[in-house]
Amino acid sequence: MNLLTGNALSAVCLGLLGSLTFASLEAVGNERHARGVEVMDHLSGGAGQPVLEALREDYPFLADGITRYALGDVWGRSGLDDRTRQLAVVAAFAAQGNLPYMKVHAGYALRLGVTRDELKEVVYLTTVTAGFPRAIDAAQALREVPDPVAP
């Protein structure tokens, strides 16, 4: 089998990408980053995300990936409204037993209009999907989530 050399591979890539340049790739990346920051500001009410910012210090590439992909590409989609998206994520993190992230997103959910009673129903539903121990842990974690501060 004949493998392409570096120059041949570059030529093939250039042929496939056409006029797509590194500058245009950077612009797309910047757009995704800006959309991710906008999503984070919306979720947190402008308070930012301290864990993400701390991560940025030691792992900027990981923080950028989260901002661009998770927030910009996935969370930035319009297929679900904010309430539905937050309820789904709280349910997923509760079922996984990922309580720190569940608490963060429960806080976002409350700030975006989800009620505590709705979150309790999600926790109760966790008994079916992940068992009573996970639901009990999620219930205890939910008690630690403060009510959002009114703007």
From TrEMBL:
InterPro entries hit by this protein: 4CMD/NDH-1_regulator (IPR052512), AhpD-like (IPR029032), CMD-like (IPR003779)
Ranges for domain Carboxymuconolactone decarboxylase-like: 62-144
Signal peptide as annotated in the record: 1-23
Keyword Transport set for record: no
Disulfide bond as UniProt keyword: no
Molecular-function GO terms, alphabetical: peroxiredoxin activity
Domain of life: Bacteria
Keywords: Signal
Name recorded for this polypeptide: Carboxymuconolactone decarboxylase family protein
Record lineage: Bacteria, Pseudomonadati, Pseudomonadota, Gammaproteobacteria, Pseudomonadales
